[in-house]
Specification:
By secondary structure, the protein is mainly β. The chain has 3 helices and 45 strands. Strand 29 (597-610) and strand 30 form a beta hairpin. The two termini are 47 Å apart.
C-alpha cells in the first residue's frame, strides 16, 4: 500500500533541480589585415549570419587596430561576412560549440582582387545536463524540495550524487574534492569533506559536478569534484535579497530509547535568515552576504549489537542531541582598473558553534543488566577566516588572459569533551581538550590563449599548509581513556604543481589533452612520548594525465571518452594520532603511516538530445591502488573495538549510469537517473598498531549495487510549482561488511509573489520516515550490526524578497 501511495504521489508532482539550461555562448574575435601590405584595417564591417537561411544575427566594425569582437554568440553554424570599400567580399564558415568561451579566428586577410572562401570552426552549444564535457551545473534555487536546508541536503537530489553517513558520494565513492568558488577551503576541508551540513543553501547560487576533472584542477579526489558557487550579483546599481526560513525535524520518535537515558530530541527547530547586498557602478562591483543557520538536530540515534566469538553479546545505543549555530559573512570588491586589468579582493568569515549532549548505554544480551552509561557533553567552536586577492590581465584578443591569485585560510578547531562514566560500582569524570590551528597559503598563476579551433591553457599552483594540534586528556577514576595517547602533533604539507591543457574542437570533434605534474612532501611530527606512533611522512613526484574526446555523430547524438589519473591524499584527521571517545567502546583512531591512494578512471559516454529533453548514458571503470579505509580490530581480553585508518590493497568499480529527462507537457516534466555498478575489494592484510599490534586478514568482496532517483515537477501556473523526489540506494559493500538499502521521498512547493520579487516555499524531506542507515561489520573475532535512526524527516517553510 505504501509503495502505491509513493508511486501515485511521484507521478502527480515531481522533479529534481532543473538542470540549468545555460545558454552557453562564445565570444568570437579576430584581426583584419590587408593581404599584401599586412597592415591592420580599421572600420571594416563584420556581419555574422545564420548558415541555414543567411539571416542577419550579429554585426560590428573593426577598431583602429583592426581587431573585432562578437560577444555572446550561441551555438550553431554561421557565415562570417566581411565587407569594405576597395576590397572583395570575404565569407568564412564559423561553427560555435561548447568547450571554449572565447575563440580567436586569428588574422583574416582581405584582397582587392580575389573572393576567398575559407573555413573556420569554433565552439559553443546550449548546455543541458552535460553539454560541456567537463561538468554538470545545477541551480540551488530550482531545488524546491530542499529549500531552507544545508548544502549537503541540497546535494542529495542531484543525479549521480548520494549521501552516505554524512558524506557526499559520486557513483558510490566518497573520495570527492569539494571546492568553494573553485578553491579548496577549510570550510569544506582540504582533501576531505567537512562542514557541508552547516553551510546554508540560501548562500549558494549553483553546484557544479565534475566526474572527470581536467588537469587544470588539483589531482586530489578520485571520485570527482563538487564546486559550490556562492551568490554574487552583478546588476547595475544597488540590489540585494533578504530571506527567512524555518522548520521542524524529528517529528516523531522512530525508535524508543534504551532504559535510563535522557530523551531524544523531538520537534527540533531550524532557523535560517539570510541577507545579500550588491552595488555596481562604473568600475566598481562591491558585495556582502550574511547567513545564519541555527538548528537543533537528532544528529545520531544509533543502535548497535556486538557479538563476539566467545559468546559475549553487548547492546548499545548512541543518542546525540545537537545544537548548531553557524554564521557566515562573505564580502568583496571587484575593481575594473581599465579594459585590460581587473583586481578582485574578497574575505570570508565562518563561525560554527556545536553543542552535543550524548548518552551511550551498554547492556548485556537480554538487557537485564546495564554494564555502563557513557554520558558526554561536546563543546566545539570552529572559526574560519579566508582572504583572497586576484589579478586578471586581458590581452587585446578576446579570451586571451593571464590570472594570478593568492588565497589565505586560517581555521581553528577548539573542541572540549566532558564525560561521565557511570558503572555499577562507581562513577568517574573524564575530559579532554583539543586545539588545532590550520594555516594554508595557495598561490596560483593561470594563462589562457584562445586558438582558431579551441584554446591552450597552462598554469602553476603552490600550496603551503601547516596544522599544529594539541590534545590533552584529563582522566578520572578508573578511566577508559588512554591519557598517554595525547600530546602534540604537527602536520606540514608542501605541494607545487604545473599543468597544461590543449582543447580542440571542430564541427564533429571535441578533444582535450592535459597533464598535471605534482610534487608532494608531507611531514607529520608527533609527541615522542606517544605510546604507539612515531613521526612519519611521505613524498612523491607524479604525473596526472587527463584525456577527453567527443565525436558528434549529428546535431542530436554525441559519444564521449575519458581517461584520468588522480590521487587521494590522507587528510590530517585521517592520520591524527589521538583516539576519539564520542563512542566509548568503538573507538576511532588515525594512522600517521597512511599513504595516498592512486586511481585510474576510464569512461565512455553517449548523449542524445531529444525534443524537450535528453538522454545520457556512461559506462565507467575505476581502479584504486592502496584503498584508504577504516579497519576494526579488537585487543585480546577486551571487548573494545578500534577503528583505524589503513591502506588496503586494490579495489575497483565498474558501472553504468543513465539519465533521462523529458518535458511531457507545459505543466509536467520529469528526470530519471540510475546508476548500477559492481564494487570489488581485493583480499588484503593490514596491522593496526594502536593500542597494540593486531593483524587483520581481509577476504575478497564484491557486490552489484547502485541507486535510482525519480524526480518530477508540476507547474500549476506561472507562479506555483511543485516537486517530488524519490531516492533508492541499493545495498553496497564496505571493507569488513556492507551497508543496507535506503529509500526516501521528498516533497516541495514554491510560489512566486509580489510581481516576481517575492517567493514563498514549503517542503518536507523523507516524508515516510524510511531513511535508516544500517551497517553489518565482520571483524576477526567479532561482528556487529548498527542501525542509525538519525533525523531525516524535516518540514521547512520560508520567504525571500529581491530588491
Amino acid at each position: 500500500m505504501k509503495l502505491k501511495i509513493i508511486l501515485v504521489l511521484s507521478f502527480l508532482v515531481m522533479k529534481i533541480f532543473n538542470v540549468t539550461a545555460q545558454n552557453n555562448s562564445a565570444t568570437l574575435s579576430g584581426l583584419i589585415k590587408d593581404k599584401t601590405s599586412k597592415a591592420p584595417l580599421p572600420y571594416i564591417n563584420i556581419v555574422l549570419k545564420s548558415a541555414r537561411d543567411q539571416k542577419f544575427l550579429f554585426g560590428t566594425v573593426t577598431a583602429e587596430d583592426g581587431r573585432f569582437n562578437l560577444a555572446a554568440v550561441p551555438s550553431g553554424n554561421y557565415l562570417l561576412e566581411i565587407t569594405a570599400t576597395g576590397y572583395k567580399l570575404k565569407l568564412q564558415k564559423v561553427f560555435v560549440g561548447t568547450l571554449s568561451d572565447f575563440l580567436d579566428l586569428n588574422t583574416i586577410d582581405l584582397e582587392e582582387d580575389i573572393n576567398a572562401l575559407s573555413e573556420v570552426v569554433v565552439t559553443s552549444k546550449t548546455a543541458e545536463i552535460s553539454a560541456k564535457m567537463d561538468k554538470k551545473v545545477f541551480s540551488v534555487a530550482d531545488n524546491i524540495t530542499q529549500s531552507g536546508g544545508s548544502v549537503l541536503q541540497s546535494m542529495q537530489s542531484l543525479p549521480g550524487v548520494t549521501i552516505n553517513d554524512g558524506k557526499v558520494q559520486l557513483r558510490g565513492n566518497d573520495k570527492v574534492m569539494v571546492l568553494i568558488d573553485g578553491k579548496q577551503t577549510a570550510l569544506t576541508g582540504f582533501g576531505n569533506q567537512s562542514g557541508l551540513d552547516n553551510i546554508p543553501a540560501s548562500a549558494i547560487e549553483k553546484i557544479e559536478i565534475i566526474n572527470n576533472p581536467s588537469a587544470k584542477f588539483d589531482a586530489n579526489g578520485n571520485a570527482g569534484i563538487i564546486n559550490i558557487i556562492y551568490k554574487k550579483n552583478k546588476q547595475e546599481g544597488l540590489n540585494g535579497k533578504v530571506g527567512i526560513s524555518s522548520g521542524y525535524g524529528a517529528l516523531w520518535e522512530r525508535k524508543a530509547n534504551l532504559p535510563s537515558i535522557r530523551p531524544q530530541y523531538q520537534m527540533t527547530p531550524k532557523m535560517n535568515p539570510s541577507f545579500s547586498l550588491n552595488y555596481r557602478k562604473n568600475k566598481i562591483n562591491a558585495y556582502v552576504q550574511a547567513d545564519y543557520l541555527y538548528t537543533e538536530t537528532l544528529n545520531k540515534n544509533e543502535f548497535v549489537t556486538r557479538t563476539y566469538d566467545d559468546g559475549t553479546i553487548i547492546n548499545q545505543q548512541t543518542v546525540r542531541n545537537r545544537d548548531t549555530h553557524f554564521t557566515t559573512l562573505k564580502s568583496g570588491i571587484d575593481w575594473n582598473y581599465n579594459e585590460h586589468n581587473t583586481f578582485a579582493f574578497s574575505g570570508l568569515f565562518g563561525s560554527e558553534k556545536i553543542i552535543d549532549n550524548g548518552d551511550e548505554p551498554f547492556f548485556n544480551q537480554d538487557y537485564s543488566e546495564r554494564l555502563r552509561l557513557w554520558r558526554f557533553l561536546e563543546d566545539e567552536l570552529k572559526t574560519t577566516v579566508m582572504a583572497s586577492a586576484s589579478y586578471e590581465h586581458k590581452f587585446k584578443e578576446a579570451g586571451h588572459k593571464l590570472n594570478a591569485g593568492i588565497n589565505y585560510t586560517y581555521h581553528r578547531e577548539d573542541e572540549k569533551y566532558f564525560f561521565t562514566n557511570i558503572l555499577p560500582t562507581f562513577t568517574g569524570q573524564d575530559s579532554f581538550k583539543l586545539l588545532s590551528d590550520e594555516k594554508v597559503i595557495d598561490i596560483n598563476l593561470d594563462y589562457v590563449q584562445p586558438l582558431k579551433y579551441g584554446r591552450f591553457e597552462t598554469g602553476f599552483k603552490f600550496r603551503h599548509r601547516e596544522i599544529p594540534t594539541n590534545m590533552q586528556f584529563y582522566p578520572g577514576q578508573n578511566s577508559p581513556i588512554d591519557a598517554n595517547a595525547g600530546g602534540w602533533a604537527n602536520y606540514k604539507e608542501i605541494i607545487p604543481a604545473l599543468y597544461s591543457n590543449y582543447i580542440y574542437e571542430t564541427n564533429k570533434i571535441e578533444a582535450e589533452l592535459g597533464l598535471r605534474y605534482e610534487y608532494v612532501k608531507l611531514q607529520y611530527d608527533v609527541n615522542p612520548y606517544h605510546p604507539t606512533y612515531k613521526s612519519n611522512g611521505y613524498h612523491y613526484t607524479e604525473p596526472f594525465p587527463s584525456v577527453r574526446f567527443g565525436y558528434k555523430i549529428n546535431e542530436k547524438d554525441k559519444i564521449t571518452a575519458f581517461y584520468n589519473r588522480r590521487v587521494d591524499r590522507p587528510s590530517e584527521v585521517d592520520i591524527r594520532i589521538f583516539p576519539k571517545y564520542d563512542d566509548a567502546e568503538i573507538i576511532k583512531v588515525g594512522n600517521p603511516a597512511l599513504r595516498p591512494q592512486f586511481t585510474s578512471a576510464f569512461e565512455i559516454g553517449y548523449k542524445k538530445n531529444l525534443e524537450k529533453g535528453y538522454f545520457t548514458s556512461s559506462l565507467y571503470y575505476r581502479v584504486i591502488n592502496g584503498t584508504i579505509t577504516r579497519i576494526a580490530t579488537t585487543v585480546p581480553g577486551s571487548t573494545l573495538i578500534y577503528n583505524v585508518f589503513q591502506n588496503a590493497d586494490e579495489s575497483s568499480s565498474f558501472g553504468v549510469e543513465a539519465t533521462y529527462s523529458k518535458e511531457v507537457t507545459s505543466w509536467y516534466s520529469f528526470n530519471i537517473n540510475g546508476n548500477l555498478y559492481k564494487n570489488t575489494i581485493d583480499a588484503f592484510t593490514v596491522t593496526n598498531l594502536y593500542p597494540v599490534p593486531t593483524t587483520y586478514y581481509g577476504k575478497s568482496q564484491e557486490m552489484i549495487s547502485g541507486n535510482a532517483k525519480w524526480n518530477n515537477t508540476l507547474q500549476f501556473d506561472k507562479t506555483l510549482k511543485a516537486q517530488v523526489s524519490v531516492i533508492y540506494l541499493a545495498p553496497d559493500i564496505i571493507p569488513q561488511g556492507k551497508v543496507s538499502s535506503r529509500f526516501s521521498v521528498d516533497l516541495g512547493l514554491k510560489k512566486t509573489v509580489q510581481k516576481g520579487k517575492g517567493e514563498v516555499f514549503l517542503n518536507a524531506t523523507d516524508i515516510f520516515n524510511t531513511l535508516v542507515l544500517e551497517k553489518n561489520i565482520k571483524g576477526q573475532d567479532f561482528s556487529y550490526i548498527s542501525k542509525d535512526y538519525y533525523e531525516t524527516q524535516v518540514v521547512r517553510f520560508g520567504y525571500s524578497f529581491k530588491f
